[in-house]
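Notes from the pairing session

We agreed to fold both candidates in a single pass and log them together. This is the raw record for the first candidate, unedited. Please don't reformat it; downstream parsing expects exactly this layout.

Candidate A
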Amino acid sequence: MPTELEKAWFAGMLDGEGEIAIRKRSQYRHKVTKAGFYLIIRVTNTHLPAIQKIKEMWGMGTLHLRKDRQEKGYKPIWYWQIYANQALYVLEQCFPYLIIKRDKAGIAIVFQRMRKRQSQRRDLIPDAFAKDHVLMQKLKEFS
């Protein structure tokens, strides 16, 4: 569990170098396409130790090297990302310290809490797609 200082540091990283998004996906399994939405948080930086610290601090998420920027003259770009309920947990923990992306985080928290309720109560699913789409559009307004 990160300390309050680490949560504040992470919030600064997320405000300055991060992304909070609701993405639309189309998932094909067993000859059935299931469309839906998912929450993602990503923090990008050229300083690998900072990205490693984020992963170590939260104990979850994945580290990646951006392959599209491997051209001569560019520093390697690293990113850490996390999805769904783990992203919800991280946002709830750092929310008090967010400044720039506070509104986006608020929408993302509402979105993921709705997703959790939907998985617990199947009767909420029929209009879930429309509600998720509205929240995704609200997040895009801040970009």
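Candidate B (folded immediately after A)
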Amino acid sequence: MTRQNAAKLCKIRNPRATRNQVKHPRQKIKLRLLKGTSVNSLQSQYDTLSTVNLQLSLEAESDPKRQFKMIDAWLREYERRNRDWPTLAKMCHEVKAKGLWKHGGYKDWSHWVLAAAPVCAKTVFVYVGMYENLAPDFSHEELREMPPETAKKMTQVSSGCRKDPVIREASKKKRKEFVQTVRAVAPEQHIEDDIRKTFTFSESQWTVIEQTFAEFREDVEAPGMSDEEIVEALCINWRQGLCKRTHLTSMANKCRFHKKNGTKCDADAQTGRQVCVFHDPEQSATVRQARRAGGIKRSRPAAVLPCSTPDLALENASDVSALITDSINHLRRGQLDPRVANCVGYLASVLLRSLEQGLMERRIAKLESSVGLIRIPLLKSDSKGDPTGDHNGDD
């Protein structure tokens, strides 16, 4: 690129502009701003002129070492401008706080950001949110010394702990070192480090996810809410049952067969299939056999002992043991229904506990009589209020 073409690109009136005139375009840019040049156009001109100056300097310089220093300085300046997140956030916050977006004909502030910076709009939202959270406790210069990853963690620290000199000094470090410092100085803050996970979505899946994120931010009126915070909020809502997970799961596993009256079958669908076993054509033979077997089983009467079977005198544990033994033998021969046998076993256990309790009471009474203790029965009162009852001895 020749110097004459560079001069035309910079829109300098004199087509024979010298190299020094091209190297200092800021004065010309300031004059154009006064004439009503738009901010976007101004930034584009400044970036173009900066690149032109570098190209002209490289063409005029033959020393490779100096060429490297020029490119290195240009790259570092570009990095500095992009890392100055507080200034970017402050400017965008001014547009939001003063309602300047209205003068651009936009619906609201977030629509302006999406139109002005479609590639980095999400980053702008996060930066503005961090700036609004931290600006009351930190000066602009302190925020400029704070890496964006660290600033994001600082928003989780309470305002009182932000006054701690150790924490303020640690805010200039990287995120990991800052988190370690806060854990050591203020463990009650419960600051956690980030865990990075990578997911792969199809184009249609990501379209649905982006739409969900955008609608969620609009619904909660928090355009600066990060994707991670939205995922956490959705998971919490789902776990609390706001998404009717039980209903959705049950609906997903129900049979899809429609009856003659138009209603759907309420039975659970088979694993890996959309219908239940009763409406699966491949299982029709098995269903018929099962129904036939069930009908035969229900038609058979329960096996019980004949009515002429004599009653058993169950007066002690030996009698109960004999009953259980006899019932087991009848059950093995098919002469007693298992349900009847279960009832006999339960009643026998109740009777055994009762017999043991009666035996214990008799033993206690015998011990009391042997040591001369007298048991006084409860007294009953007659109609006149005089107590009556049998006494085995003097009071």
